[in-house]
Amino acid sequence: MKVLVATQKPFAAVAVNGIREILEAAGHEVVLLEKYPAQEDLVAAVADAEAMIIRSDKVTSEVIAAAPKLRIVVRAGAGFDNVDLAAASARGIVVMNTPGQNSNAVAELAIAMMIFMARTQFTPATGSEVQGKRLGVQAYGNVGRLVGAKARALGMHISALDPFLTDEQIIAGGADPVHSLEELYASSDYLSIHIPALPATIKSIGYDLITRMPKGATLVNTARKEVLDEDGLMRALEERPDLKYVTDVMPDNYAALQEKFGLRVFATPKKMGAQTSEANINAGLAAARQIVDYFATGNTRFQANK
Ligand code: 3PG
Questions:
Q1: d(CA 187, CA 292)
Q2: What stretch of H or E contains 179?
């Protein structure tokens, strides 16, 4: 089978080599499309692809229509909001993710971002310590639990909200269960967002929640920019000069935020939570193995569009 590895933000070379080895050993052919400048390049490249490995690359209905032989798409990572699941399902194309494989990298970045903001972006200004502060974790899944564990080791107190977990499960994960967003935001000196971008979560975090945060609080977003209501964030930061926002998913209004709020906001130029060679290897190789397994045995574990 022809497997297209399409990554606008490429995997580390060591991960690409591993992906190639796994797929070629199983008799598949690998075509690499990295750092492509425009979506048209992806549309053109899928013409004869039977399988795809992607990251945040956009598999739209147009891409699917241009890929008549496509049978499986594996998103090497967690979020699959970049894939048009309905269009894929309509064609019988299996869409999978690789849950958990890049979680540690994202969790480490969330912790690093908290400390970066606590230390005023590493300027000489007097900062603060995270020890003894309360961290709220919004969604206690693969990434959220790792953030909680690392923050506990730093002496932070952890609260978590997760509608899919019982209180007992959250307590077993080392956090105090919280039952509403209002309560979570109101009690968190640091709030780390780990929810997916879904119709119900898009623009769900805005002025009302953000302004509930305690004095001096920091909001950390390593999830998706879409879950934030950017106008609400702007208003909240305007009204509350003590609040800070840090993210690796740059808001569309970042230039305006930076101009107004300086060191109180920070965004990385690219989404970089999962950008470690370890995460690239874990997620990329898992994706390659899932494709080999799907064609060999029909295994659809991790299918997102069942
Ligand atoms: C994910 O959903 O797995 C993360 O957001 C990482 O995305 P990336 O592969 O584009 O870095």
A1: 47
A2: none
Architecture of domain 2-101+275-297: 3-Layer(aba) Sandwich (3.40)
In CATH, what class is 103-267? alpha beta
Per residue in 172-219, pLDDT (tens digit) is 999 999 999 999 999 999 999 999 999 999 999 999 999 999 999 999
Tokens standing for residue 233: 């964030």
Q: Domain coordinates of the chain in residue numbers?
A: 2-101+275-297, 103-267
109 C-alpha to ligand 1 centroid (Å): 13
pLDDT digit string (tens) for 245-270? 999 999 999 999 999 999 999 999 99
Q: What is the pLDDT of residue 85?
A: 98
CB 139 near ligand 1, within 6 Å: no
Cα first-last separation, the chain: 22
pLDDT at 54: 99
Q: What gap in Å lies between CA 87 and CA 159, rounded to an integer?
A: 38
Per-position DSSP letters for 142-160, written without gaps between them: HHHHHHHHHHHHTT-EEEE
Counting as low any pLDDT under 50, the low residues of the chain are none
The alpha carbon of residue 155 and the mean position of all alpha carbons in its chain are separated, in whole angstroms, by 25
- Nearest-CA residue for atom 10 of ligand 1: 56
- According to the model, what pLDDT value does residue 136 have? 99
Alpha helical stretches, state H, the chain: 13-25, 39-45, 61-65, 85-90, 103-118, 142-153, 167-172, 181-187, 207-210, 230-239, 254-261, 277-297
DSSP 273: T
Tokens for 96?
Answer: 């999978």
> Residues of the chain with pLDDT > 90: what percent?
100
Ligand 1 midpoint to CA 75 (Å): 9
